[in-house]
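User: Fold both of these, please.

Assistant: Here is the first one.
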Amino acid sequence: MEVTESEARDVRTILIAFYGREAESWPINSEVARLLGEMLTKNRRCAEAMDLVPRPGIVDRAYLRRQLAGIARRILSGDKSYLICERFLALSMKSQIRWASQAY
């Protein structure tokens, strides 16, 4: 599948958000787009998992109630990301994306 100019611009914009100006020079192709899609899917799964993690705090009688309310609120708020997820995925997938950008 060929990547259109518009899609390549979108892919590059997202890559720059993850990798900074370094990504401006990476050639964009269908494999890079596929890997970016995989990375974004993993980012969403990571964010969903992070929504379920209790936050630190003083454990008292109201702690469980506060944590349950916070978890429910995070789940209901929908589309978001966590910096820890973004950084981990950017680091773990950088080599694959760089190789893919040079493959064609």
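And the second sequence with its predicted structure:
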Amino acid sequence: MLEKLAGRLTTEGDLLIASDVHRDQGRNREECLSKLVGLLREAIAVPKSRKATAPTYSSQRRRESGKRRDSEKKKLRGRVRGD
């Protein structure tokens, strides 16, 4: 948790949270507490692992047709023969 919050900690290891959204101190304190709860939830959340998936049939076809198109374009760049 400390690693995830490292950017928000002071050199002494304190976590500072400030709020000046509201005009009175009590509501700003409540805002800070809700920010703290949100930060802690984010810090303890375990990210979902990514599953590798195979490319779809249509995406493979699009890739192949693009490669064919580029290949034809490059074939046309050869020397011009003067007959």
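Residues 6-44 form one domain.
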